[in-house]
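Notes on consecutive records. When two proteins share a document, each keeps its own sequence and its own token line. Never mix them. Below: protein one.
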Amino acid sequence: MGLRILLKNTLNIFKKKRLQLLAIGIIIGISSFLYTTMFYTLNSMKDPFEKFVKEYNQEDFSINIVDGITSSDIDLLNEKEKSTVNNMLTYSLNDIKNKNKQLYNKILDNRIKRFEDTYKDFELELRKYKEVNFTYKGEGNKITFIKDGESINLSYIEEGDKPKSNNEIAVSKIYANKNNLNIGDSIQVNKNLYKITGYVLFPDMTLPINGSDFIIDNSKITPALVVDNEFENISSKEEIYLSGVVKKEYNKNYGSIMNKFDKKVVATFTENKDLDFITNIISTKNQIRSGAIYEEVKSGQEITIILSVIMLIIAVMIVLILIYKIIRNEKSQIGLLKSIGYSENCILIPYLIILIIVSLPMLIIGYIGGVYASSKMKDFYLDFYLIPDAPIKSNLFILATSVIIPMLIILLLSYIIIKKLLSKKVINLLKENNIEKVSKLNKISNILLKNCSAKNKFKYSFIFNNTSKFVVFFIGIFLSSMLIIMSFMMIGFFEKMTTDYYNDVDYVYEGYVDFTKGLPSLKEDEEQFISIESIKYKGNVINIKGISPDNKLHKLYDKKYKDITKDLEKGVIINKSFSKIYNIKKDDIIEIEINNQRIKRIVSNISKDYGNETIYWRLEDIEHIITYKKDLNLGINKTYFNGVYSKSNLDESNYISVINKNDIISQSKLMQKYVEIAVYIMIGFGIFIGVLVLYILTTLTTEDNYYNISLLKVMGYSKKEVNSMILNSYLLHAIISYFISTYITVVGFDYIIGYMGKEFGIVMPFEFKISHLVSGLLVIIIIFFSGTFAAKKRIDKVSLQEVLKEYR
């Protein structure tokens, strides 16, 4: 009976704070929701993925190789073969294959043998693929034909069968679903008609990206499997790299070998002249096309834990502040209850029951919502990642960590606080006044503000009266500010990585010459260029583009959008990615080895485009370098080139591949859409959290200071002045917290940019501008006025008589 009365009385006390409790419950629910959603999503992807890559022997590392002949290659050729290579109209392995397949195979076999002789723990296999652009249903599509591995990176058929004849093909399931294609249907890829026999996945192509064009739209791009004979027949440039794994006989020491891989292999291969054909070696965990999923799962779980813990800390601290405030206000009644024989536990239980009533339903709602949302989130991830799908299964660990553990933490900490307050002697509970001790932060702020007026001293030190409130306030505003600044920095980053480049150039078609057909004659709206890929610079792969300073189709621009193409006459122009990764500035000297020549050039300017690290070179200069001492038999063409830009259609019979820039722009639209959605969600979530935290804290502050507010009104201060003195301290410190958060966020993004560039070779063009700082500040001010609106209303309602109650 006594417990029921106490519970009813406690419930009446908490009813007066139902909106604050609801806000706290929402924060607790969001914490549970975030954790449940992300961990169910990532776990449902992780388990089938790990099984997939193990069974189909995913590469442990990949080796990018020089797309041309190196000194060590030539040393292993006989005199006849050396003469053949020297007189070829070529700079690529692909062209060597077209001229002399036997020589091509010998070069690659020698490369594999040299590596395996040097590093005996590993075995290599050649990996080949061809990219083909085609039109499907009136839109540009891209298909990547991947030649099946012999023992490494084996193809996995999710459904259906492997192709068995030249007119059969297997594509990704998501591509088929998004284009309403079923097994048995046909698909036209340029001149070839294929019958779909199944849905395929490749363990080294879990994220369909090659290079630095961050374009992922699985409704328009797909990997594909055909029989080996058909792969060789496909007219397109053949791309190659070497896939490597630990030899089976050393699998017992697999962990130890791979842990030392970077130190023993990646850091040492450049010292071996026999391995000069290697441009770089990348372990799978650092390879974006195959290893991004590992980083996604790891970082996704880490970020989820951090966000969930931050939300839980905010909620728990506010709960403890609220409990402390209620117990302090009710101490006289509690002292009376103790004096008539109620035990501390009997008084304590109703408070814990109320906390369970408030917290547990919100945690359960968050969990249930997270379970439902995880299915949608998994589908979102599978829009990008090409990995096996699997149903989401219930997990007791996730249930415990998203519902039971947070509930126990709230109850345990609340129990400790309440128990400490109730442990005081009855006489102290009955007589002790309500004046709180001055916090250390308040003392420090008073010292710093000692020369200010009493009004300003009160206004700006007021927030430090309660250290716990200030900590919660700072964390809430910090998190809100961080999300807002991050979202602003993301605006436009995807366009800078992809579409900005294609929007700046005036050509539509980009063709790569098929040298077996000879150099094509150029039409009026066509311009030649030279493209050299897989050139080594400081141990990494870069691209060289040779264009004329007077060209009309491929102008170069600096960050102020000034035409800098003419600067090619003074030296080379590097793009933004090259500049950031290698910290190269205008007027620096760079040195590169091309065609066995070490070439030094001054950097005359930096173009604003991102993407692959690229050096733009004067066409005539680079043409002279790569044709040095070669008898090319160019015929009617006076200069060498291997690519053509054009405004009109190119005759595809003369080219290995033709790229339509409009197809790439079209394929990028989905990613642009997702980036925009992410920006809006982050801004919205940041505002929501900021408003909730400010609402709870400012209303609690108002309730705690009815006496002070009333006293200020008795002293003659207007409502506006009282509002300013009580709440404007929050505004000032919100702005200070915002600037601290902005600085940390910008520094953090700089680290992310450096990490992505170092580990994955991708420069993420996140930029912080003064406009972002101003816009973010305006949003924080809006959050302040929204979050303190209710508190201002309460301050206005405080009567002058409140001050008299203190002396009743």
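Protein two starts on the next line and is unrelated to protein one.
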Amino acid sequence: MARSTPLSLRTLLSQRLAHRLFALFLLAAVLPLALSDGISHIAVREVAQTLDERARADTTRRTARQVFDRLLAGKTLLAATPAADPVRDGLAAAWLPGLERVFQRLSWLDDRGRTAWSSDPAVDLGRRWETAQAGPYNRPPIPESRGDHRIEVRLRVATGADHAPQVLLAVSRDGLIRWIGELRADHLWAPVLDAGHDGLWRVRDARGVELARLGGGDALRTDSDAPQLRTESRLFLGAEFGAGDWVFEQRSPQPEVRWMGQPLSVWLGLVAAATLLGIALLCLWQLRRTLRPLAELTDGARRVAEGRRGTRVQTDRADEIGVLARAFNDMAARIDDREQQLVHRAVHDSLTGLPNRDGLHERLQSLLDAPGAAARLAVLFMDLDHFKDVNDSRGHQAGDQILRLVAQRLHEAVPPGTFVSRLGGDEFVIVLPEADEHDAVAVAQAVLGRISAPYELGTSTHVLGASLGIALSPGHGRTAAELLRCADIALYAAKADGRGRHQVFQRALDLAARQRVSLLAELRQALARNEFVLHYQPRVRPADGAIDSAEALIRWQHPVRGLLYPGHFIEVAETGGLIGEIGLWVLDAACAQIAAWRNQGLLLGRVSVNVSPQQLADGALVAHVRDALARHHVPPQALELEVTESLLVGDTAAARAQLAELRQWGISIALDDFGTGYSSMAILRQLPIDVMKIDRAFVTDLGRDDGAMAMASAIVAMAKALRLHLVAEGIETEGQATILREMGCDELQGFFYSRPLPPEAFHLLPRHLLPALSGATPVLASRPG
């Protein structure tokens, strides 16, 4: 008994379950740690940011106020300057104390507002004052009164030659501007420089024009996408200077909390890493203790899956894992017992006990791969004839019973050592090792004879035949697929020759099979290219030869082989699954022709169209007929649908329901080829039909065979008893026409009256077809006007 070996820690940790549990443990630890660290970090950062914001807001307001104080100082100094002409009174060089520290330059204006004196002759402050802006503030400042004079000080911002903003103050006495001074930038913005060592300061006037942009070090890069703190303070200048407000803005990096020189996030990360390390070590210890037995169970399950019999695991534990191990050992023992049964079922048919398709291919290929004479063998492909009728008439249980009996008879009929298998359905394959054609034919004859013996099914018996195809190796093929294909082709030929026989494969049969494939491909192209045409054969009243109706018959206008009749392609269309599409085309083309004739004045009682079994099996016939009638505006009474009696025998409730619904619309339903199938009087009474057609097989021997006369008379009597419209087809002689007319047939059809004709020729037929006395050809009555 094989036991699983203990697993090392390294092997244990390579298991996916260990990975998942380890990850789960870490996840359970990481989430709270990360959450607590995150909350702590955010809380500390927000507190620090709030405190820093408050401090910087205070700094911004204080700095703005300091700048305002310097503006007031400049106002006071400028207002105290004498209004006399400095040149005339000799004051050009005598500045008041403090003026040079506050003002960069001064200009004195005369009564006409022109600059009469300037401390810097190169700069005309009068002109600059005229172009300077005070901002969107339209009210004058609050004036001061000194003696008899009214003094006002205004502020404006001008642009210098270097495009730098210049702050100008102008003092007016009694409405006339006398002094204009340009404030020194280093003096005015000194408070900003003192407060902006780690931030970026921007001062803008009411128009948004930047008056100053100051900062030091890394603060000049605070316009980037990095998080920043931004504070503003508004300086109101309207009352004192008659100018718009100034906005002081300070931007600085967000504060970073540090401890012992390192950011707080580093310390929080170190604490979390140490905690995770401890949790990971504890998790590994617990995993090793818990998952080692599970790993041994996994290894044992893998050994069982690999087919290693006798696999067992240790069961010395007293906990739940020990219970699981003992259950595993019991399961492994049962698997060992059932494995052989499963292998047998995989390659054998559950119904008959014979090898199935997989078993056949395995056995056949092993025989073909054997060296020497062992590669010489015969493959017999057998198919039961009309087995579907058993299922339809007696049920699938009876069909299964017959299949078991067939398997038993095959074993009894073949020599010892023969391989017999069932492919599926009613198909069986026999493999004869070291057999030639003579041996294969002898076995085929014995098998067919044994299979054709009656089968006892309860209280009744059933006779069933079979067809068989033979392929030989190496002459017909050297592979299993090739031999089965050749045997299947031979089987098809045996069925085509009448069933109940065997056929040895020949190359000509392969050629015929390939031709069928080629013909099927051409049929698909014919549908796409609209190569089919309809010919119409008239059906006449026996008394006067009047054309009452016609049958639509398909033809194929082949581009190379010319006009082909249904016998050349209908069988291939049925086996190839195209008969449904062809049937739909015939239905639509016939309705289109009915409409065309009605428009031309040719009013037939009805046109008969054949319906294939596939059209009824699809369940969409009612919809297709409705669409065709509506598309071509044809009344239902102008259409007749022909079905064969084999469609209406057995479990065909759906088909009968479709035909019954069509009859309610006024469409006639005709039963074609009556008497050639399985219909009985009881079944015939239940069929949803209006017309019965006597098959040509009973018409051909009329007047020569008493049996044919008796059968035809019985069919006529049956139709009249059921009040069915009776049509006889295949009439070729006057004698046949006379007999059927005397029997009381309602309509006659055949070459004696007319061959099937194209629509344009059919339209030229006279209204009455009168047969000549000789019976050779019909005599055409006078044409309609």
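For the record: DSSP finds 25 helices and 32 strands in the chain.
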